[in-house]
Structures are given as C-alpha cells and as structure tokens.
Amino acid sequence: MSKSSGAVLYQCAECGWRTAKWSGRCGECQAWGTVEQATLPTLMHAGVPGAARMVVQPPATPAVPITEVDARSASARPSGMDELDRVLGGGLIPGAVILLAGEPGIGKSTLLLEAGALLSKSGRVLYVTGEESAAQVRLRADRIGAVGSNLYIAAETELSAVLAHVEAVHPELLIVDSVQTIMVTGIEGTPGGVTQIREVTSALMALAKRQSLTTVLVGHVTKDGSIAGPRALEHLVDVVLHFDGDRHAQLRMVRALKNRFGPTDEVGCFELGEYGLIGLPDPSGLFISQRGGPVPGTCVTVTLEGSRPLLAEVQTLVGASSLEIPRRVTAGLDSARVGMVMAVLQRRADVKLGKQDVYAATVGGVRLNEPAVDLAIALALSSAAADLSVAATVVAIGEVGLAGEVRRVPGTARRLAEAERLGFRRAVIPAGSAGIPASASGQDGRGTNARTLTDVREVSDVKEAIAAALGA
Predict the structure, then answer these.
(1) DSSP string of 262-283?
(2) Is the pLDDT assigned to residue 1 strictly greater than 50?
(3) In the predicted model, what is the mean pLDDT of residues 213-218?
(4) Is the separation of the CB atoms in 14 and 194 below 8 Å?
(5) Residues 277, 367: one domain?
(6) pLDDT tens string 24-45
(7) What is the pTM of this model?
(8) Concatenated DSSP letters for 458-472?
(9) Domain boundary among 281, 300, 321
(10) Helices 462-470 and 374-386, packing angle to 10 deg
(11) pLDDT on residue 256
C-alpha cells in the first residue's frame, strides 16, 4: 500500500476496529456509518505497528526491588461518603484514574459534586465541566449544599485548557464531566470518538501518575447500558464504576466493574432526593413492600451484594392469556433466568404456566441477577399459579437447576443472619447448607431482635420447596 494514497486503513470511530477495505458496517461493534478513512497521523496516535519507529528513551526513574517501594504514598483517602468508599475499597487512591459511567440524569454529576465538596474541606478540588456552564454547576451546588471555597469550577472542552487549570490550581482531586466532551486540537476525529478519547484519557492518565493526582472521569453509556466509546478507555483507567437505578425510584447504586485497588463485588446505596444523595447503610427495607397481610405471588429472598446481604421481594402475577403467544414481562429480574425457572416448574413440578401471561418484578427498583434468587422466583410463580400465599415471615434462598434440584449458594450464614435481624422466622434453603445454627446472627457480628429464625427447612428440589413454603 503506497504512502501517497493518504488513506492507510479504514477505522471505526466507535470501537477502533480497522480494515483494509471500506465497509458500511463495523465488523466489531456492528455500528452503521462509523467506518472512516484513517490517515497516517491518526494511526500513529492509535499505535499501529510500523506507523512510527520505536525510539529507546532513558527511564525517568530507575527500577528498584519491590521491598524498597514505599506503599504509604498510595494509601486510600476517605472521600467523606461512606457508601462510595465502600465500593472503592476504602477511599480515593492518589494517582488513580476512575471512570464513573451511568445513564443521563441518573445523578453522576450530583454524586461527584457532593464528594468534591466534602474533599475540598481538606484540600483543593478542581471540577471541570464540559456539558454545563460554571453558573449552572453553582446553582446545583447551592441546591444540594455542595459549596466550598476550595472547590474550583472550570467550564472547558479543550484538553490544553484543562491542563492549564490543573497547573494553576494544583488540586488533589480532578473531576472531568465528561470525558466525551473534551477534545485535543490538532487530532482528527470528533469529541468522544475513538482517536480523541484515547488521546484525552492517555494525557490525563500521564498527568495523574506524574503528579499523584486522583482523577475522576464521567463517561456516557449506550442504549444497552454499556460504557460508550472504545473499550480501550476501560482498559486504561484504574477503576470503573457504574452508577445505576430506576429513574422512577429514589434508589441509586454504585457498583465497581473494575478496581485495581479493592474489591469488585461491593455496592454502595444512595437515596436521591431534592437536596442531593443520601447514603443508605441499611437499605433492605426499601426492597420489601409494606402491606397488611400475605398476597399470592410474592416471596422474599436475601441477595448478596459483595459482603452486604440485602432482603428483596419478588412479585409475580399469573393469569389466563387471550393471545396465541402469552406475555412474559420482567422488571428488575433477568428474563432468561425467569424463563428457565418457568420451564423447570412446568416440567419438574407440574406447575401449569404454558398458556398463562406471566409478569415478574422486584420491589423498590432493585435489580436481582444473582442465581440465589431462583428459588424465590419459583415459589412466587407457584404461589401465583395456585393462588396460595407464602407466609410473610418466610425467606427463600437457593439456585434452581434444570433437573429441578435446589443448589447451594455462598454466604448462607450471612443471608440468614440478615433475615433474622429483620424479623423473619422461617427460611427455605438448599439441602447441605446445614451447620448453620438457628441463631445465625453471630456469624457476621450483627445484633438481632426479639424474634429469631425458629424454622430452617432444607430442600433438595423445587417440589420440596413448594411443599415447605405453601404447605402443599
């Protein structure tokens, strides 16, 4: 291929996929109309082998034995928001680059503005906004009470201006809202494209490591909920957080999808109100409906979000369908797992659901994707189909297999301790989970109320589980 052609390769502006022949559709992300010509300078910035000759440079610092490395400089600094620190693994690490992604309007900017205001009490914080003006950010800060003299606001969309602000302010925390709006002059591509976003992220990464500057980047998400932009963005950063929740509910959750400095299975819970976000150290009550008595089609389970057990309620509704293909509607549950549990109930437990419309949902907008929720779904569906109620003091924990067996799940002692703490007296759990005393609260050091789990039923299949919960 000659250099005079000017178009060395064709490259997708969304994911960075390259091809020698133009195509109307990307072969990697399947996006239409995103494959464009990539010239030599673009390929050099993208790191194509052979586009530039490697030049050996002397190292900035010599290599030292790991025993001589001082780890105290990388210790976590609490952000002032306990739920956020829980997900981060203790707080913000100097020099770490964090990507916070979430749907528009979910509360990402509010969360970071509150965290920035709390951290500004002990050091300078620079909040760079590329989507709003400084006055608009100030109005929101006044509303949620996130105002401080050490919290600096800058409205910029050019990388060189952002770097100039950092040199002038010397912050301990840099917040960029959002990384898709920042661009580099002289680099091809639109803001948020693969070339621009790689250049911006690489420059901010180098700055963060060089100055031990904690940097938080806000990222957009696509329609299917995945992080927008090239996957290289997630590989470059140290921590990837996802901020989600039902827009019609007040509950918001922060989850770690990647964390080089802490766990990736923790979740932080917040309540979004008129005056900002409030941490919820004990959110279990939000996921259980408050009603006078038991209702057919409902069952309570205990899910584990990291080390935190949360009680949640599964609700189902079953009715005769007037359509050739019955409706299957889910909200807050994995539709594939609900369909699998329905098939197991029909085949292994003789629960007739084939010609029924089935609706399944959770309470409070919580999303339950853990296999341990299967048994609660099965009992709720069986309860709705038979028009019998599961007692309000019963919890169900277990994974359902295709053979109809109920499998053990991890953390059973912690789950039962949380159920006991909230007043539940009976539990249906998989066989082989024994060895757990009826008073399981001591397993995680938490207290209990006057009532305890007086009846723990171990079951081996869904038929036994239905009999234990419904008495039939």
Answers:
(1) S-SS-EEEEEEETTEEEE-S--
(2) no
(3) 96
(4) yes
(5) no
(6) 888 877 878 888 877 545 444 5
(7) 0.76
(8) EESBHHHHHHHHH--
(9) 281
(10) 60
(11) 93
Q: Is residue 70 part of a domain?
A: no
> What mean pLDDT, rounded, does the chain reach?
86
Q: For the chain, how many residues are written? A: 472
- The strand pairing partners of 100, in sequence order, are 218, 241
| 183 in the same domain as 154 | yes
Report how far apart, in Å, the C-alpha atoms of 325 and of each of 328, 334, 385 are.
9, 20, 18
Tens digits of residue pLDDT in 189-210? 788 888 888 899 999 999 999 9
Co-location of 103 and 33 in the same domain: no
- The answer to the question of residue 262 being in a domain is yes
Q: Are strands 18-19 and 356-362 parallel, antiparallel or unpaired?
A: unpaired
Average pLDDT over residues 275-288: 85
Question: What pLDDT sits at residue 374?
Answer: 98
User: Which pair of structure tokens corresponds to residue 211?
Assistant: 């100055």
Q: Same domain, yes or no, for 257 and 331?
A: no
The pair of structure tokens assigned to 12 is 């997708």
Q: Angle between the 194-211 and 159-169 helix axes, to the nearest 10 degrees?
A: 10
Domain span at residue 308? 285-470
Q: Count up the domains in the chain and report the number.
A: 3
**Angstrom distance (rounded) from CA 355 to CA 275:** 48
Q: 93 and 218, same structural domain?
A: yes
Question: Before 307, cis peptide (omega within 30)?
Answer: no
Residue whose token pair is 């390929």: 43
